[in-house]
Design brief:
Elements lengths: L8 H20 L10 E5 L3 H12 L3 E6 L5 H7 L3 E4 L3 H6 L4 E6 L14 E9 L11 H7 L2 E4 L6
Parallel strand pairs: 1-2, 1-4, 2-3, 4-5, 5-6
């Protein structure tokens, strides 16, 4: 890999790991095509999530950061999220219902993935990036009636 001389290695490292991990599903699900502005939800505001927020924002999309930690709101907005959703607050979740064309789920701990399906718009896709070994139970009705999808994306590497 060629790294520009003016890019410090400590800043290049995250781009080569978290950057490609988040860029690949954005590319695959059409966010790099500049002909359509999307609403992209990023679940989890950690290393992957903040990189996803920055990338989706830089591509010109509306970004919704989603976290179970209220203290992540300022960081989310600083990185480029237009909206912050507190996933443990029912009213906050309702405020973004049916709004996301694409959701990238970076949570690497046990959680109920189906909790976030209400945020997907018609034909929206939730992409799993955070790997956990537990099974997820998913109610099929929101998938069927909303033509919603659940997919996965392999963590990027060189």
């Amino acid at each position: 890999m060629k790294i520009p001389d003016n890019l410090p290695l400590e800043k290049a490292g995250p781009i080569l790991c978290a950057g490609v991990t988040m860029y690949d599903p954005l590319r695959h699900w059409g966010a790099t095509k500049m002909d359509k502005k999307m609403t992209i939800g990023i679940i989890g505001v950690g290393g992957l999530g903040t990189m996803g927020i920055k990338l989706a924002n830089a591509m010109g999309h509306r970004v919704i950061a989603i976290s179970s930690s209220a203290n992540k709101e300022a960081l989310s907005k600083e990185k480029g999220a237009e909206t912050f959703i507190l996933s443990t607050n029912e009213e906050s979740m309702k405020s973004a219902a049916n709004s996301c064309d694409l959701i990238l789920n970076t949570i690497p701990a046990h959680h109920e993935m189906s909790h976030y399906l209400s945020l997907l718009s018609l034909s929206g896709t939730l992409v799993q990036l955070g790997v956990i070994g537990n099974e997820h139970k998913v109610n099929q009705l929101p998938l069927i009636f909303g033509r919603k999808g659940i997919a996965g994306s392999l963590i990027g590497g060189i």
